[in-house]
Amino acid sequence: MLLRKLFEPIEIGRLSVKNRLVMPAMHINLGSEEEGLTDQAIDFYETRARGGFGMIGVGIIDAYKFDFSSPGEMLLDDKPRHIAQHRKMVQRAHAYDTVVFAQVGIRGVWPLKEWRTLPRLSRLPEGLVWDLINAAIATSIRAAEAGYDAVDIQGNGAGAVSTFTSQVFNDREDHFGGTPERRLNFVLEILKGIKRRLGADFPVFLRMHGGEFMPGGYGVDRAKANAQLLAANGIDFFSVTNGSHATTVPGLTPNVPPGAYAFCAREIKSVVHVPVAASNRINHPRVAEDILRKGWADMISLGRPALADADWPRKAEAGDFEDIRICIACNECLDITRIYEKPVKCLVNPRAGRVLELPDIGRAQKCKRVVVVGAGCTGLQAALTSAERGHEVILLERKHYVGGKWQVAFPPPGREELFEFLAWLLRQNKKAGVDIRLRTEATPELVKGLRPDVLIICVGARPVVPPIPGADLPHVVFAHQAIEGSVPVGENVVVVGAGGVGVETALFLAKRWESSHETKKFFYEWPDFTDADRAALEKRGHAVTLVGRNEKVGIGLGGGTRWVLVKELDKAGVSTLKNAAAVAIEPGLVRVRSADGQLSEVKADTVVLACGYRPNEDLTLLLAGIAPETHSLGDAESVQHALNGTGRALEIALAI
Ligand SMILES: Cc1cc2nc3c(=O)[nH]c(=O)nc-3n(C[C@H](O)[C@H](O)[C@H](O)COP(=O)(O)OP(=O)(O)OC[C@H]3O[C@@H](n4cnc5c(N)ncnc54)[C@H](O)[C@@H]3O)c2cc1C
Ligand SMILES: Cc1cc2nc3c(=O)[nH]c(=O)nc-3n(C[C@H](O)[C@H](O)[C@H](O)COP(=O)(O)O)c2cc1C
Ligand code: SF4
Q1: pTM for this predicted structure
Q2: Residue range 155-206, pLDDT digits in tens
Q3: Domain regions of the chain by residue span
Q4: Relative to the alpha carbon of 327, which ligand is closest?
Q5: Is the CB of 373 under 6 A from ligand 1?
Q6: What is the C-alpha separation between 405 and 291, in angstroms, rounded?
Q7: Which of 226, 317, 478, 650 has the least CB density, counted as fewest CB within 10 Å?
Q8: CATH number of 10-339
Q9: Ligand 3 touching residue 336 (CB < 6 A)
């Protein structure tokens, strides 16, 4: 084994944990009013216990249901069915020697749309505050009754504990606010209540922020003082995450360096004598091991990495690093659960939350010849699952490389990790024995000659040319061409279209020549260079203007990602024209009309079109009818997020 520290056991209070890997609680929306925890949820957790996690967190279990609570919440009410379902799950996880804790909290003191507005906590009557505290204690008692090894108080996110602890959101002046110490009383009352009812040695954990990371919020110094006080009152384990729900510092997007927030765990660990976990963007085993070896934390929390690959620990222990499906921080999982309130889904692991994950993918009853056309991520996923089921699979790709449009999704700055998805898909397709034929254009004749039983068409979409006079001039290019470097791009660039692709293209071009922070740090530590060297090192990119018709830019990007990219536009010096339309393109300029009808000229050596995509329907029609069974998936079916394409690819391949 390569990973010396990750697989050492550890004691947490009276608990023994077999390794240092903990999956935190994540609201996966697989609960229900009738059952509390659905069978699908039990399967989800058992899969991760089997995958080798030393500890797994279940929940969040909402102790108090507000009117606007989401439908799939996991509940542990005073109902025999709820307790029975939780008990079943705990027993299943225990069979793998996994410690299971219930995260108890009070989520959403305010509806989602009010999250970032400053709530007035003083609006809550004191009686209701005590009701919330008592509800959390009562739910914890039921968790113990269901067999959970520990209770984890949700002190992060938009939960009540986080809000009461906040320096920004708590404006009370009573027992629960007014000073940093009194702001802790809410969580202290819950903690003391649990210990009083379940015994001093009943393990109670806290998931907490390393700081609020927002203007006016408390910093890591206050988080340390809070942890000290809470440890003195019996918290047995701290799991330290990023800023609060309203943080203005990214914590979850791919531009967050792996392990960036581990310093918060290090600071908490320096003042308490109980184990501490580091969290956020720790997706590679080497990063996890490094944090432990340096002594920054005692455990490693893997949230999304556990969604992306339930077998992360098993694969890491075996040294099969390349087989781990790395979480690429696309945040589709968060958007789907939090904004759309649907069961969790994961882009790189389409089985998560969608179909039962525990059983191995079954072999098909009859081996068929499956021809997949197009090796974008949809085609690669369809080919992989079909091959895993024992079918003979031929994957046709007209280019000399696989990946389709995903090839231009990872070059924008801070998106590099998206590459991992393709690398994994390609590797697994090869391992599964898919016959990948590059430089092979699928024509009706060619496909007919292959005599497929099943034809899966994943030929993607083509870019839309807007009806703007001059759109056919030679200095006008498509976004994907600008990113892939297949066309020259001049100094002054106008990007027409400010959806997700436009925003990412603008960022890519505005930062195109920029050296990474690491590179700069390296050279500034060895600064024997000239002014010319320094100027070259500091070079940024093209002068970019982004023109969009709407008031908002980045429509179509997920909520967890959009705000970060929009801020980055500013930081990268992109000039953004909102509510504006490009009305004419001429050599060297674009004419733009603003919402009030004013016309202006913007200099443009190159104009980049990012005006959407349209499915490749003609090709789909040409190939239709060749095989007894034909499916059209991904962007070829309708332009969509890759999550939907790969999800459908899985479903179809499972049904063949
Ligand atoms: C800049 C950019 C950023 C993006 N970022 C994200 C993101 O963060 N998250 C997200 O979900 N989505 C993102 N997308 C969209 C995402 O890339 C697409 O939804 C996804 O790649 C579609 O995959 P697909 O396999 O259906 O089609 P494609 O990726 O278009 O693949 C189609 C494949 O078919 C091949 N092909 C076509 N015709 C033939 C033929 N006759 N014979 C053989 N092969 C053929 C093509 O060469 C291509 O490889 C982004 C897109 C762009 C442009
Ligand atoms: C779908 C989803 C749901 C989450 N729900 C919770 C939750 O209920 N309680 C909690 O403490 N954290 C929750 N989180 C936050 C994670 O625990 C974790 O802090 C965050 O994802 C960053 O860590 P990671 O990079 O390891 O995923 C959730 C995250 C995701 C992606
Ligand atoms: S959906 Fe994206 S962010 Fe969420 S776990 Fe999967 S890869 Fe990671």
Answers
A1: 0.94
A2: 998 889 999 999 999 999 999 999 999 999 999 999 999 999 999 999 999 9
A3: 10-339, 369-459+634-655, 465-611
A4: 3
A5: yes
A6: 35
A7: 317
A8: 3.20.20.70
A9: no
